[in-house]
Amino acid sequence: MRLNQLFRSWWYIVKYQHILRTARFGRGCRITGRLAISGPGKVTFGDRCMIEDGIWGGEYTEINTHHIDSRVVIGANVLLRGTKIGCYQSVAIGDGTRAEHCFLMDSDFHNVNAQHRHLDFHHNDRPIVIEQNCYLGYNSVCCKGTVLKAGAVVLAASLLNNKTIAPGQTVLGCPARPVAGLT
After folding, report:
1. Per the domain annotation, does 121 fall within a domain?
2. What are the distances in angstroms from CA 77 to CA 17, 47, 48?
3. Rounded CA gap, 65 and 42, in Å?
4. Which domain, by its residues, includes 50?
5. Percent helix / strand / coil, the chain, rounded to 5
6. What is the CATH classification number for the domain harbouring 133?
7. Is the pTM of this model over 0.85?
8. Are 33 and 52 in contact (CB under 8 A)?
9. What residues does 37 pair with on adjacent strands?
10. 150-179 pLDDT per residue, tens
C-alpha cells in the first residue's frame, strides 16, 4: 500500500472511531477511497474490510444513520466500492460480501403521500440482511426488508424491495427476478 493510502486509512479511522465516535473498525481495515459516515447511529466494520472508490473513480462510500438506534454492521473481508447506505433501523452485511456502487436503504425516509409527510412513517421500515459471500452489482438497489442468503448475486441495475433471495441464487431486473442457468 502506498504512503498516501496508509495515511488515508489512518485518518478515517482516527476521525470516525476516535474523534466523532460514530464507527468502530476491525483490525487491518484498508480505506483507499473516500468515506463519509454521518448521523447519530453506530457503524461497525469487521476485520480486513476494504473501502475503495467506485469503479469510475471519485465516488464516496457513504453511510448515513438516521436514528440514535440505527446500526450498520459490516462483516470481515467486505469490499465496499462507492456504496451508499441509508439506515434507520439495521443494515447487516455478512463476511466476504462485495458491494459495487450499490444502494442499501432500510427505510423510505419519508411518507410518499405529501399530505402525510408530517406523520410517523417508520412503522413500515424493515432491516436489510445480506449474508456472507454475496455480490451486489453496479447500481443495484436493496430496499427495506431485503434478505440475501449466503452466496446470492444481485446483477447490475437490479431492484430488490422486501424480498428474500435464496442461497447462491442470481437475480436481475427491476424488480429483480431469478436468472435461469446462472449460479
Report:
1. yes
2. 19, 6, 5
3. 7
4. 3-178
5. 15, 35, 55
6. 2.160.10.10
7. yes
8. yes
9. 63
10. 999 999 999 999 999 999 999 999 999 999
Instruction: Provide the grid cell at 28.
Output: 487491518
**Which grid coordinates are listed for 177?**
427476478
**Grid coordinates in use for 167?**
442461497
Residue 43: alpha-carbon gap to chain centroid: 11
User: What amino acid occupies position 73?
Assistant: V
Q: What is the length of the chain?
A: 183
Q: Report the sign of the C-alpha dihedral through residues 18, 22, 26, 31, in that order.
A: negative
Using DSSP's 3-state secondary structure scheme, residue 74 falls into strand
Q: How confident is the model over 65-104, as pLDDT tens digits?
A: 999 999 999 999 999 999 999 999 999 999 999 999 999 9
SS3 label, residue 119: coil
Closest CA to 100 of 140, 44, 49: 140
Q: What is the pLDDT of residue 106?
A: 92
